[in-house]
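Please check our next protein.
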Amino acid sequence: MDQTPQEIKALIIRFLQRETTEAEIAVLQAWIREDDVHRQYFDEINVTYQTTVTLGRFNPEKIDAAWKSLDQRIREDKKSNQRFLSPILRRTFLKVAATISLIALVSYVFHTYWTQKTLSRGAVVYHSKNLSTRVDLPDGSKVWLNTNSSLEYDNGFGIVHRKVVLTGEAFFDVEKSQQDFIVSTKTISIYVKGTRFNVQAYDDSDVRTTLEEGKVELKVKGGQELYAMRPGDQITVNTELKKVVKDKVDPSDYSAWKEERLVFDNVPLSEIVLKLENRYKVNIVIDTALAQRERLTMTIEHETIDEVMELIRLSSQIKYKKEKSQIVIYE
């Protein structure tokens, strides 16, 4: 027997609550790709679910009402003769559909727990504060997050899209697929199918994308032009002027941080300062003109911050001093 719309809704809700098996996800993904109407159906349930979660933050009575409304719509859909899927998952779907009414009866005591649990599943956020972190995404892609960085994606990832939001720095090893993998930052969007690349997008710095393998298309937000990248290409976007600069570099220099190394090849002192602040958790004060003018080549592995500052002093004409909790660099 084929599946009815209410059974599809039940599967989608299980997916939004992250309770589906890999086999069920594969079935749902195939169903969504089958027809644009199916994709719209998924979006409709997703909106209802997320609205319920949002209401639950403020008013437990409203969340009960939202679930009851959804349950009523499921009952009405039983009148439909439409069929969507094979019978393999029918019993599972019916069980889940039955639980929707029970959710509406959850007491206020359990409601708080349920809301917090659902909220945590509504948007997956990884934050790397003091150490670099590896993240394995649902589609098989791998991401290494540098310190003071975060990565976020929602429940639709791997089903209706492959989009992540990055703040900070990360190295991506993207699983090949016909579906675009999109990295969004405050300044740019990056579109790939399957490739390896590094993105540096801290809040108060230029955004730098370095391609190691494959192909990448980059677009500055607010602009129209797509910039194509090939292995060894690096595109730097000035966050204030939106100026785009393309260079040829050694990509391994810009992903060395994954192995706890910092490699600088004739780069501005401003970039070195940013990396040192992130790695050593220190505040470094330096004149902007000096930071942009001075360029250095150096590799940092296991040195302390004091050893690094001495290396910088010996490699250039600058001086430095420690003042309380910060380091001041001057000429």
